[in-house]
Design a protein that fits this description.
globular, 22% helix, eight-stranded antiparallel β-sheet, 223 residues, alpha+beta, 4 helices
């Protein structure tokens, strides 16, 4: 199974086994803010990508994305809480899908109805880990070969943030197939949060980056 196929299967499992019900997309989102400190067109950052149109907000206590920040949702995208699976498959797939490189998945923003992919939000298990260290561990935590890592510091809404991009390759497949990944980490209320998207079998960067840019540029403190 190549990397893109594995990504698609993982996404399907996440939706089928982990995603809770409900979304928080009925409230209008505020204006996005916090552009990257340096504009870098083209590979690997693609800052020329226009953020998606907002269609609501999520985050904060009682939302489908229970993290101490709020952020705008792209129009047509919905937030769903990630809960550990139950039953016979719990021990087999639970930790594999909810744990990665010292982080635990908190929620998933699903853009399939709008023709996009997925934005996932993870929380670092250690409250003292720095954003850069959290990103490095997260990238290495999927069991893939990681190459071409690049970092930059920027403002993400109301937060100082660190962003990382990298190429991931599954070392177990005969024909290597790289996928481009992006993730941004911020600290809020004693937690380090990681917002992550990637290209996959059924998604291009133009599918995932607009919603990702909207979310991270509109980050605000939650309750």
């Amino acid at each position: 199974m190549d990397v893109r196929t594995r990504v698609a299967v993982s996404a399907a499992l996440t939706l089928g086994l982990l995603a809770g019900c409900g979304d928080d997309a009925d409230a209008p989102a505020g204006p996005a803010a916090g552009s990257p400190a340096a504009q870098a067109a083209g590979e690997p950052w693609y800052d020329e990508t226009t953020p998606a149109s907002p269609g609501g907000t999520t985050g904060g206590t009682g939302s489908p994305c229970p993290v101490p920040v709020t952020f705008p949702l792209a129009d047509g995208w919905t937030a769903k809480a990630i809960e550990p699976p139950k039953g016979e498959l719990a021990e087999v797939v639970g930790e594999a899908l909810t744990k990665r490189g010292g982080t635990t998945a908190r929620c998933e923003v699903d853009g399939r109805p709008a023709g996009g992919g997925f934005l996932r939000i993870w929380a670092a298990d250690s409250p003292t880990v720095t954003p850069r260290a959290a990103l490095e561990s997260f990238a290495a935590g999927a069991g893939e070969t990681v190459a071409g890592q690049q970092f930059r510091d920027l403002r993400a809404g109301g937060f100082d943030a660190t962003e990382m991009t990298w190429l991931a390759t599954n070392p177990l497949v005969e024909e290597e197939d790289e996928s481009r990944n992006w993730a941004l980490a911020v600290q809020s209320a004693g937690q380090t949060l990681v917002f992550a998207v990637n290209e996959g079998l059924i998604t291009e960067r133009t599918d995932v980056l607009p919603a990702y840019r909207l979310a991270v540029r509109g980050l605000a403190k939650g309750d």
